[in-house]
Model the fold of this input.
Amino acid sequence: MLSKERNERLTRVGKGTPLGELLRRYWYPIAFAHELDDWPVKKVRLLGEDLVLYRDGSGNLGLLHELCPHRRASLVYGPVEEVGIRCGYHGWLFDHTGRCLEQPAEPKEATFKERVTTTAYRVEELGGMLWAYLGPEPAPLLPRYDVFVMDGLRDVGHCVLPVNFMQIMENAVDPTHVEWLHGRYFRFLQERTGAKAGRTFQGRHVKIAFDVFEHGIIKRRLLEGQTEEDDDWKVGHPLVFPYMMRVGGGGAHQMQIRVPIDDETTWFVLYTCHDPGGVELPPHGDRLVTYEIPWLDERGNHIVDYIEGQDIMAWVTQGRIADRTKEHLGKGDAGIAVLRRLVFENIAKVERGEDPLGVIRDPAKNVRIDLPCERNKFGAGDDFIVEWIEGGFARYSPQKDDILALYRRAQEARKVGVGA
Amino acid sequence: MPERPELPVVEYRGTPSPEPNGRSRRRSADRPAAAPGEYVWATPTSGQLGVPFSFCPGCGASVEGPTAFVQELWVSQESVFHVWCPACGFVGNVVPVHRMIGHEAVEGG
Ligand code: FES
Ligand SMILES: [Fe+2]
Ligand SMILES: [Zn+2]
Done:
């Protein structure tokens, strides 16, 4: 149980709130880069702020307050120019720094435009995504986590969920849910429907542990039949503070991204990079392969016959902002307590004027940030990846067959390698 | 496995009681104190959110405000309060003891 005041402090992401100020010290993905190739303007909402993202004719990326400072029409419905974006209503023109360059209906000699600016935020591109920084200057570096810079077959599922992002983050430090939500419940569905439950998600947890490190919290699990030498315990995988989780196994490298759109809405992105090793990767263009994953059926019920659909069910049914004054945490929820405490500690750091956990300013430390992540997931070897693709969100991928073929080739190559 | 004894459910009292030395206890208005010698438990049945202490064990600063972190977890028969104090940085678990137990039976053992 948590008091109402602390629940608010833990979940509110808006400007001026304690958590909102902490979250404004980090970069967030707001779009896939190819979206602006298809149409150069996109409406974006991040941390409760309504914004317009665009790329102008000179290639400048702009992220401005959505409403025009003139009479507050939306800039989303305006033309981009060689430099800047123009309000569709009366033609005021703004550049990516927020300066007003033109006010066509005003007298030529007027200096009115020099006195008008709009809010402008930084945008950078990394891993085929566009990232925004809404915090105070000087901005920290956009972290180059391994998944975003490594080679591999990229595959990105995503959806927008009606839920506060902290509920999803709490799931990232909740190892035991795997054996129940993805184990027992999946088996229950299998017994009654055609659903196919993965065998590798059934292991019983013997112990779990959480270690705070420079990028967040490393989560470890020891399953029945395993020893402390197994990857799941020895290596584990991290919650990347404050809004991501690095997972994977068997050649799949994934960042689960939970972008706080506002207090009650989250953009959930499963950014995956497949590289089983030992085989040549198929050529891929600059465009990321992205697709929306469904989570409600036509009758409005949760789709629960795949891993992430089960997770989404749990997060969403907790309520848009879970009422933590009514919860009952036990020993198995130790990771949740650690995460919440870390949020409070880092809110205080920001209030003292310090950089919070995971903020990077040294370019030498940002060439490529390799995060610890188990490879032999659940001790399941090659079985893991097949079950993970067939029983997870990647079953909706337009390139699912290519991904499976890649792993098959890698397995065959390994067999040949061993025989040779 | 032997049955565990039921915990006593102790209700909160509405008015703060004086400390033995006559000074009134310092408590926030929204959390009434128990009488001296009574436990202040938040139990599954009491439906109460109660933290049976007001100050940091490390430095004595108040941990009642929302900037401090106090999270209750139920572990077996006990309530464990995971605490972080913003004044001194103390991190720890506070466990009120209502009955000293030597060891806990290992499940299935
Ligand atoms: S058992 Fe955990 S939410 Fe119900
Ligand atoms: Fe899960
Ligand atoms: Zn203290």
Remarks:
- The first strand of chain B starts at residue 69 and ends at 75.
